[in-house]
Amino acid sequence: MKNSIFVVILTVFALCSLDSYSQMKEHHFGVKYQIKNLNYEVLEDSPNHKMGLAHGVGLAYLKDGTFANVNVYFVFDYINGGGNFIENYIIQFKDSSIISLKAEGNSYGTESDPLFSAKVIILKGTGSYANIKGDGKMTGNRKKNLDESATVNLSFEIKYSD
Questions:
Q1: Nearest-CA neighbor of 118 among 63, 75, 58?
Q2: Cβ(60)–Cβ(31) under 8 Å?
Q3: How far is CA 87 from CA 4, 21, 75, in A?
Q4: Could you read off the pLDDT of 53-100 as tens digits, one per residue?
Q5: Which of 45, 48, 49, 103 could disulfide-pair with 87, CB 3.0 to 4.6 Å?
Q6: Among candidate residues 119, 61, 121, the one with its CA nearest the CA of residue 93
């Protein structure tokens, strides 16, 4: 009987200890980037159907007041500014640590004022983020048509463990 109670207590302790190590943290941050390279084709199957890829450069604005450099690479399939996209973000911090994210989502609204919504997963981390894992969501907008000078504003909510 004593051994059974001891095993139960030991099991509960171990589970509680493991749970505290794997607790998820939340991180909210903004990203603002400008499109630098844009390549697309207008398809003839629907009016104003564009498929293409782009690269943007900007900054991540963290809650603690720090900044990180961001490179964004994305592919899109839009009709009148709405449709699907896949984006990859490389966020590099001052200490050279990197977090890579992938967002898959939709653009909606109008071509000149689209809104974005996406599911986000953390692909990889390096340096102080080497063991980071998690996912979340992204929302945002662009206040002009998709071109090489457009600025994109995004908000991220990420849940992660490290």
A1: 75
A2: yes
A3: 53, 31, 7
A4: 999 999 999 988 999 999 999 999 999 999 999 999 999 999 999 999
A5: 103
A6: 61
